[in-house]
Fold these 2 entries.
Entry 1:
Amino acid sequence: MAESSTNPLGRPLLDGIVPEEVVARTEKRWIKLMAATLLVMMAVIVVTGIASALHPPSNVEVIDPTTLHLQGEFVESNLGTAVEPDGSVTVRLIAEQYDFIPHCVQVPAGTPVKFRLTSADVVHGFLLPNTNVNTMVVPGFVAEVRTRFTTRGEYAMPCHEFCGLGHHAMWAHVRVVPKERFANPTYLERTRCVSQ
Ligand code: CUA
């Protein structure tokens, strides 16, 4: 009977025709290989998801999103652009449905700029086109990105993580101004784009 299942015609197989049992054995091997590949991929997703994926790619620094407005680095009076003792600039922003606070910030050209962002509600994104600035803004974490603007101009910064019905309208702006204009920014210049 075994012979008839491998060769139903009862005649020798033609050259190039693979016997059924060989096909079955090969298919079983492929099934095992594919199942193993799938298991490995799923394990990678689960492990990275639990252990390391859900945080901004740049920086693992936790913060309580429910008390942002009450205490710490992201209170309203501390938002916007700050000049550090070494001349570099730190910009602090809060992302929330559906805006960045402040809505527009000014930074000097030709100066190291560090953006520090956090979210007050859901996951947002922060992207400056044609620069290296591109990060997720996750509630509970501080995202930090460093860059340097070489040319003056205005950058639109869209939120690029879907965050709700108003996502498409969530934009803010970075205005790059000449370095000289940035020696002693007033409070207004730190927290909004003052027309030149
Ligand atoms: Cu915020 Cu999309």
Entry 2:
Amino acid sequence: MKKPASASDPLWYKDAIIYELHVRAFADSNNDGIGDFPGLISKLDYLQDLGVTCLWLLPFFPSPLRDDGYDIANYEDVNSSYGTLKDFKTFLDAAHQRNMQVMIELVVNHTSDQHPWFKAARLAPPGSPEREMYVWSETDQVFKEARIIFTDTEKSNWTWDEKAKAYYWHRFFSHQPDLNFDNPRVIQEVLKAMRFWLDMGVDALRMDAIPYLVERDGTNCENLAETHAVIKEIRAAIDEDYANRLILAEANQWPADVRPYFGDGDECHMAFHFPLMPRIYMALRQEDRLPITDIMAQTPSIPNNCQWGLFLRNHDELTLEMVTDDERDYMYLAYSADPRMRINVGIRRRLAPLVDNNRRRIELLNSLLLSFPGTPILYYGDEIGMGDNIYLGDRNGVRTPMQWNSDRNAGFSRCDPARLYFPVVMDPIYGYTAINVEAQLSDQSSLLHWTRNMIALRKLFQVFGRGTLRFLSPANRKILAYLRDLDRGDGSHETVLCVANLSRFAQPVALDLSDYAGYEPVEMLGYVPFPKITKTPYVLTLAQYSFLWLELHPNDGVTEVSGEGLA
Ligand code: GLC
Ligand code: CA
């Protein structure tokens, strides 16, 4: 008997709306300045109202927090600042009661140097089982072709350890030694940690930094066949014992290199589409659809049980690793005027500041996020247009406390403001007195209400999560137009036409919709019937940064509208 999960449909993740949050940043229940599980539980009503269906929690395990918890010191416990294992279970049950799935992090490429395995490894003799948990070398001249990821802080992927009298390997910070996946004991330990959480009922695992598990000299140590073998082993263990779970690959790679992480449907169920993300920003700034259509043309098809994970922003910098040198120069110029906004190979800013707090641009980007093929992932705070604090170090500027209301500390905590893990944003534009949940709940025209409506609308149409994509190619390149289509299986189709204006000025467009001659488009937010499609080009006019979602009805005079009206 496989252990069931909270979702009953094995493909639940295709229809999910994922919300990424950090327990530490969400709500503080005991007023010590640090968010915690009881605080998060108290905000589940808010998340349910927003309409998100899956909560992705950033690492909450015991950790020295030198990489915000991605430096794990114990895989099978909760960081005491955030609560106890019991609190986590209470949270998990409470989320499940609200029909929300829960995704947590499986960070197995590396541990903290404070993990007991590493402490033992440094002291153990070379070749011993303890030492072999990590990757050691007498010289730093091996694996020379592996790039450095944290270019601002690290000079080498090797660090000399005085106690061990050897170099240890690390793809990220030097305090994050990489585990040695050539050692079968490492895989056993990973599976044990994984089962610990899956047994408890966790629905999904984000597999952090997955391309770097195995290293071989003479290669760039990324995406190796040996790494894929490890992932297949992990997936097989899940399929053997657990029903309806999900693993999500964090593989920041070109589409052709990400494709193998789906395997034949026997590796990861989902993978982030990293290259698409910066190109959405590029298309917006250049007022040209080409960057988007170009990367989608390079995106291979994936097995039926697989899905892309789409995002506009997350807890990391807007990474520019998967763009060309020219594109990178352009992005830095267009989106990071102040050098402080840059980190490593990317830009550390939130969604609203990236688009100059322009509401129309925020809505336009979200309309793409919610209508492109894949599962949308929202980053906490972006639903109210939170700002960032570029004066905080590392990527912490986008990890400030959630802004609930205009009370002390944005309603996040009742503690002395000096005690907060990070200060709340206080500037006049994005500060918590201007941008907060309470104010936006009482304002019917707020971004929060808009986001909630769009999520609700998207959930009425399975075509967005499961349908095919076909771009139209109108002469006006400032217009991005595409058809999403889902064969319902009974001969009928759910077909949606999406049209987006990337320009800061109004634009006309003539679309070739002759395949749909006779159909009636119905605008989906307002259920407004549009003129019937004919064999001649279909002409639309779009205001600056506006978009249209039109459901195409094959009707003969009578307007049938699927779904229920949204107020
Ligand atoms: C992933 C995380 C990032 C972290 C890194 C190292 O890329 O998203 O936040 O710093 O892994 O663990
Ligand atoms: Ca607390």
